[in-house]
Amino acid sequence: MKKSITIRLLAFFMLIGGLCLVKAAPAQASVSGVTDLKQTGAAKNSIPVSWTPAKDAVTYNVYYKEAGADSDYRLSGSTANPAYTLQGLQDGVKYYVQVKASDGTTESYGKTLYDAVTLPDQIRGLKQKRWYYFIHILDIEWERKSGVTGYEVTLSSNSKGKLLQKKDVGTASVSFHQVKDSVYTVKVRAYTVYQNVKYYSSYSQINCIPQARITKLKLKGGKLSVSWKKVDGATGYKIYVSNKPKSGYKLVKSLGKKKGSCTLAKIKGKKIKSKKAYYIYVQTVCNKGKNKGTSGALYYWSTKNGSYGYL
């Protein structure tokens, strides 16, 4: 009996001694995260931010990425102060900005600002998308920027400079209705609302030019005659012809603004044949000042049936 008790006591003391020999794992070091992260100013290519200092922080690492992007956050830089300015950013873009505190070894969890924005610069990609001259609608589009609140768009007479229509849109496109067969000037500027103040970019500007409307097309006696409605503000016209409705068009004649008709006997050295079908369209040219351009080509006319089709 005594021997049994002795053995049990010995086993107990050996267990206790073994436990004492096991060193406790050190507690994981941690740094509290920053709070009150906010944007403190507005600029085209930079975003200043500030935050409340974190306990035990030695430095702060500032990360960023474009809003909605699938890419990982990129390190912009580090600072010992509770404020930082991200540089080299794109204009008119919304960013996610994330700040992590560090004690020199460990980073805290990240505090993220989801609505940091840069101010817009002059918009890019402004163009005339489509002009439906039968229903008198002009479509305009440009490149969309994620940090832009909206766009101010104006339509003016090209020849007189009179403002005709003005619109405020939230999309990167707009349609003008009841337009005439005339060259117009379209101006677009972006704006961003930051702390209840509207910040505008400078204007981008283009000439919008309608395709000349063919009024008469005749094929007879080895000659192809075409007439069109003159466009107010045009400086010239270009005539294109093909033997196929959708392809193969060749420039056969360039004319001045006073011309409203043209008769062709040859196309690139080949005689016109009265029994052959021809497809034709006329483009409008406007070379005024810096806004030089040529209309698109949405419609063609055919000698086969005297009607029009879509290119």
Describe this structure in words.
- The protein is 6% helix and 50% strand.
- Strand 13 (184-194) and strand 14 form a beta hairpin.
- The relative contact order is 0.11.
- It has one helix and 26 strands.
- The N and C termini lie far apart (110 Å).
- It has one helix at 2-21; strands at 35-39, 47-52, 59-66, 74-79, 83-86, 94-102, 111-117, 127-132, 137-141, 150-157, 163-169, 173-177, 184-194, 197-200, 204-208, 213-220, 223-229, 236-242, 250-256, 261-264, 266-267, 270-271, 279-288, 291-294, 299-302, 308-310.
- The chain is elongated.
- By secondary structure, it is mainly beta.
Judging from the principal axes of the Cα atoms, what is the shape?
elongated
Q: Tell me roughly what share of residues is in helical segments.
A: under 10%
- Beta-sheet strand percentage? over 45%
Radius of gyration, in Å, reads 35 Å
Number of helices: 1
Distance between the termini: 110 Å
Structural class: mainly beta
Give the beta-strand count. 26
What string gives the helices and strands in order? Answer: HEEEEEEEEEEEEEEEEEEEEEEEEEE
Poorly predicted tracts of residues: 9-29
Q: Major sheet, described briefly?
A: 6 strands, antiparallel
Q: What's the average pLDDT?
A: 90
